[in-house]
Write a structure and sequence with these properties.
With about 100 residues, this protein is α+β, with helices and mostly antiparallel strands. It is built from 2 helices and 5 strands; from the N terminus they run βββββαα.
């Protein structure tokens, strides 16, 4: 099983938010709580079963640091990090398709 940690990126695999990118801000044995800074804020995260997400093994470093230091999360910060990661993911996907 994949080791899931707070501050990691995750992509939704099921539901109306399928393929949407989030940051994991909380977890337990069966669920994770996800935020994107827009629709799902740090104050009202999306609760999702672990089997319904794809964990991306990269960290949102500033979010991870805030969580470790028990500082409140900033939605603007989460939003910017996700936009940047989403752009990187699209660029990676584009490069992979050109190489094949």
């Amino acid at each position: 099983m994949v080791r899931i940690q707070e501050g990691m990126f995750a992509r939704s695999l099921a539901g109306h938010d399928k393929d949407r990118l989030y940051v994991i801000i909380r977890k337990d044995a069966e669920y994770v709580w996800l935020a994107d800074g827009i629709r799902r804020t740090a104050e009202k995260p999306k609760k999702k079963k672990i089997r319904h997400i794809q964990v991306i093994h990269r960290y949102a470093e500033s979010v991870k640091k805030s969580l470790e230091e028990k500082k409140p999360l900033q939605n603007q910060q989460i939003k910017q990090i996700i936009q940047s990661e989403s752009q990187n993911w699209q660029e990676d996907k584009h490069v992979e398709s050109r190489c094949n």
